[in-house]
Amino acid sequence: QVQLVESGGGLVQPGGSLRLSCAPSQTIFSFNVLAWYRQAPGKERELVAQEIAGGGSRKYHDSVKGRFTLSRDVAKNTVDLQMNNLKPEDTAVYYCYVRQLSSDTEYWGQGTQVTVSS
Q1: Which positions of the chain have pLDDT values less than 70?
Q2: DSSP bridge partners of 36
Q3: Vertex 35, ends 33 and 38: CA angle to 5°?
Q4: Which residue among 8, 58, 91, 103 is least packed, with the fewest CB closer than 10 Å?
């Protein structure tokens, strides 16, 4: 069983920045898919950013392109989401997600609240 521990959420003013971190209990290189999702009140969970290992390709939700960046911190063994120029519509609970294709298993973090408000 893989545990994902998220950190970095909080309250920020519009235009501000936050950095979310997700620390898996296994090396990040054991996962084929690394991603961040979010769910706002009354809305479905949506993919924010995703990296497919191997090819290293990344994709982002249209609404966050140019503002959010997903990255790996090898030294800390974390999957990070740098969020800049935050907007009120970015307010949501953000979830870390990883998947291992070899075992066809996926894991979710517990979620971290991001609130963008003045």
Answers
A1: 55-56
A2: 49, 96
A3: 150
A4: 103
| Predicted local distance difference test score (pLDDT) of residue 55 | 64
Phi, psi of 43 (to 5 degrees): -120, 160
Structure tokens at 10: 């909080």
Residue 101: per-residue pLDDT = 87
Residue with tokens 């990040």: 28
What pLDDT shows up at residue 13? 98
C-alpha closest to that of 21 among 83, 64, 65, 91: 83
* Cα distance between residue 57 and residue 13, in whole Å: 31
Quick one: which of 117, 55, 109, 61 has its CA closest to 86? Answer: 117
If 0-12 CB within 10 Å is exposed, 13-18 middle and 19+ buried, where does residue 67 land? Answer: middle
Classify each residue of 17-49 as buried b or exposed e, where b means 16 or more C-beta atoms within 10 Å of its C-beta: ebebbbbbeeebeebeebbbbbeeeeeeeeebb
